[in-house]
Amino acid sequence: MAKLVTLGRALTSWYFAGPAAVILGLAIGGVVFFFVAPGKPAVGVINIPFTVIDGSSAFVIGQHLDYALQDDSIKAVVIAISSPGGGASSSERLYLHTRRLRDEKPVVFVMHGLVASGGFMMAMGGNYSYAQPSSLVGNVGVVGISGGTLPPILPEIITTTGPHKLTGGSRQHWVELIDQLKDRFSKMVIHERGDRLRMTEEKLLEGAIYAGGEAVSLGLVDEIGVTGDAVEKAAELAGIGSYKLVDVNARVFEKYGWRAQLTHLPLDAVTGDGAAAGSKSDRAGEAPEDQYGQPLMGILGQEQVNPLSNLPIEIGQPNIYYLYTGYGH
Prior knowledge:
eight-stranded mixed beta sheet, four-stranded mixed beta sheet, 12 strands
């Protein structure tokens, strides 16, 4: 019995209690590290291949931006983009969406191929930008098809309030409206680029496209570089030294399937600012569903509808674009 008492006192002495406490602490720390503590921080990469920006593609791109925003493990985001722009409203929406992401996490753009007009507008929502020497960048301006060029010939049964109720305004009014959008576009670029911009507003509004090297010298882009450079810059801005990469495209695809793929949308598939014509969901005649069985995009914008069956007028959409068309070249 005396031997057991002596052994108990020895085990509770500091000779044994100290090392035991250290071992126990290491064991608990290991459990916390592997099962409780957050994993390695990540840089999320979003790849936007050559895409015309319209209501449909803007929705899909928005899903990628939202994923990067909501994933707490993603501390910075790189967006590789190639786009000639597209609908004015959709382009502005992506700029504002990207800027909201920038408010929470650093966003770095890398411009591949052509990044013009509305595509360039979206890139203004980031913190920093790269381009390749052969990238084509810029084209600040507006393309518009003015309404009210001819007085409508209406059946006597139709009555309207105001001379521009159907057209939205005279030709002069539409020219002034487009001019306002042009000025807002240029002011946005000037605001976002700040002291980095080395060209006058008049020069900016010529709507020219510049090769990557010249775009950098003019302050439209920050540096010449590729996606790897953008990843390193994003990590630097986030203050993370050790990180992993997250393919946001793959994550969103896993969540939503083919409907969330970013693919090329030809120019002739764009109608106004609505959905691209001839999509799979259009041909199937039904709205796509996500993995939970709920409509992902609903049925809005799928078909032309006549709000009044007896009204012999087609419902049109605003034909205003931040878009490089290459017309005349």
